[in-house]
Amino acid sequence: MIRVMLVEDQAMVRGALSALLNLEADIEVVAQAEDGESAWKMLAEVKPDVVVTDVEMPHLSGIELAQRIQRHELPISVVIVTTFARAGFLRRALDAGVRGYLLKDAPSAQLADALRNVHAGGRSIDAQLAMEAWGEADPLNDRERQVLRMAGEGQSASEIATALNLSQGTVRNYLSEAIGKLGVGNRIEAHRLARQKGWL
Questions:
Q1: Please, which residues have CB within 8 angstroms of residue 27's CB and are 6 or more apart in sequence?
Q2: Is-contact 5 32, C-beta < 8 A?
Q3: Each residue of 83-96: b (16+ CB within 10 Å) or e?
Q4: Any idea where the Response regulatory domain is (predicted)?
Q5: 3-class SS string, the chain
Q6: Would you kindly state where each structural domain of the chain is located, as residue ranges?
Q7: Distance between CA 177 and CA 199 in Å, rounded?
């Protein structure tokens, strides 16, 4: 039996996925969480074989959850199921050790097959997205990405500096680097382009 934890911030989608997966004779949904942080707190107790997660969620994204699982060397495979068909997201997901990346408009049978494949040690990646993923590299480093994401959420340089324990000058430098690397005029354009590419 493949023990699955579902992590999805939309309750209706989470419920539908759970109902579909529980129809499979060899798959059992043992836990559900509405965001990555809640899922992280439940992992030690639930001990799923596979975590099925969305990308963008409050508090902790699916990719950040995968990074934590990888960093702590937990014996848990991660499969992302998302609407975001962006090569940048896939590249970051693969770097975080994600074993599967599927789009929400894929047939439900494809998800069940992906879980079996991943549980057996394989990978299940959307083929078209995989081809696109190697076309354009993400120019941002982790800190630039973090600062740019917070700036895009409307936080000022001083608020970002306080939250990240950095000086305001350092925050401005990170923003300036990100703007330069993306070849745009300001932080708003940088945030928009980076999101569009899937780099945030």
A1: 1, 2, 4, 21, 112, 115
A2: yes
A3: ebbbbbbbbbbbeb
A4: 3-119
A5: CEEEEEECCCHHHHHHHHHHHCCCCCEEEEEEECCHHHHHHHHHHHCCCEEEECCCCCCCCHHHHHHHHHHCCCCCEEEEEECCCCHHHHHHHHHCCCCEEEECCCCHHHHHHHHHHHHCCCCEECHHHHHHHCCCCCCCCHHHHHHHHHHHCCCCHHHHHHHHCCCHHHHHHHHHHHHHHHCCCCHHHHHHHHHHHCCC
A6: 2-133, 142-197
A7: 15
Nearest CA to 9 out of 44, 36, 29 is that of 36
Is 3.40.50.2300 the CATH classification of the domain at 2-133?
yes
In CATH terms, the fold of domain 142-197 is Arc Repressor Mutant, subunit A (1.10.10)
Q: Which residues pair with 52 in a beta bridge?
A: 6, 79
Asked whether 112 and 27 are in contact (CB, 8 A), the reply is yes
Beta carbons of 87 and 133 less than 8 angstroms apart = yes
Dig out the tokens for 122 from the structure.
Answer: 């394989």
